Amino acid sequence: MGTDRPVSAEALAERELVLSAQAGDHTAFAGLVHRHQRRAYAVARAIVLSHDDAEDAVQEGFLHAFRALERFRPEQAFGAWLHRIVANAALDIARRRKVRDADELPETLSSPHRDPAESGELRTRLARALGTLGERQRAVIVLHDIEGYKHAEIGTLLGIPEGTARSDLHHARAHLRRQLSNLRSEK
Amino acid sequence: MNGNEHGNEHGQMADQRVTDLLRSHYAAPLDETYWTGLEARVMLGVTRGIVRLNTVRPAWWSGFGEFRAADIRNGALIAATIALLVAGATFVREAELKATAREMAQRAAVESALPLPLEDATLTSRLRSRLPEDAPERYLHPLDY
Fold first, then answer.
1. Contact call for B13 and A173, based on CB within 8 A
2. Residues A24, A30, A31, A37: what is their CA dihedral angle, to the nearest 10 degrees?
3. Which residues contact B65 (CB under 8 A, 6 or more apart)?
4. Shortest CA distance to B50 belongs to which of A26, A58, A8?
5. Measuring CA to CA, which residue among A115, A157, A47, A26 is closest to residue B1?
6. Residue B1 and residue A66: Cβ atoms within 8 Å?
7. A22 and A69 in contact (C-beta within 8 Å)?
8. Is the Cβ pair A67, B12 closer than 8 Å?
């Protein structure tokens, strides 16, 4: 009848960091940043259009998390809590960006951090296809197919029902498949 | 999270080629120095945020200054309105009391001038000993009678 789950050393170490950070230890918070920044970046990158915006979202997210740290209950999963905050920051940036410079969308969209192995034309086609995809559908397909999140987790991150995440994934896959079909048959 | 959950979603399978393209497009920086730098920038932002908070955060007594500046004026307006309403209500109430007192005085004056002879009077009522025999018929068919 035991309900105690085995707690890994990793989880214990993270809990220690969280408790220390809550007590005002900045070094401990830096440790949390170090542990979670890559995942936080991936979440943000799935939502915003460019690498720079993703970085901004990560920084804003961590700052919000730091300010809200005293409200965090240590028995929760810190990663899930943090990623939700980063996702909200990213959604906010995406919203502002959409309003501010809708005209620059095609340029800002295709800005991966480094050059991928594919040809320039392929990258252009992908960027265009992603540009014609809805913001939410784009985030869902990246979070699911690239980052490996489940539908329910995506729903929590983006603030949408699980069913909507499923449906968005279906439409996004179909859309990209259609948009890139010619190119794939050429290759 | 489950990296292998790429099965059939509403009949739409993930296209491996598209997935590879997306993975390449959304690839995170591999350079370790980038992450060290990002961590430093995040912590700098946190420190600046704290400094800004401490600078901006008002002292407990500063609220009174703001209260003096704006809220006293509003408070005075509200108090004046309430005082006006109370005064109005009191005036109406007093007017009603005066009117009642005047009416009572007039009634007393009339009653003292014309005393009613009710003290020794006996009230009687005339009771019908019994109903006529055709009474129910008459009540039901009054036009036939």
1. yes
2. 130
3. none
4. A26
5. A157
6. no
7. yes
8. no
pLDDT per position as a tens digit, A109-155: 445 554 444 567 777 888 888 888 888 999 999 999 999 999 999 99
> Which residue from A minimizes the CA distance to B53?
A67
Query: How far apart are alpha carbons B9 and A173 in whole angstroms?
Result: 9
Could you tell me which of A52, A63, A107 has the C-alpha nearest to residue A89? A63
Which of A63, A48, A55, A38 is CA-nearest to residue A93? A48
DSSP class of B28: P
The helix/strand/coil state of A55 is: helix
Give the chain A residue nearest B10 (alpha carbons).
A170
Cα torsion for B125, B131, B137, B142, to the nearest 10°? -30
pTM here? 0.62
Is the ipTM beyond the 0.90 threshold? no
Q: Tell me, yes or no, if B38 comes closer than 8 A to chain A by beta carbon.
A: yes
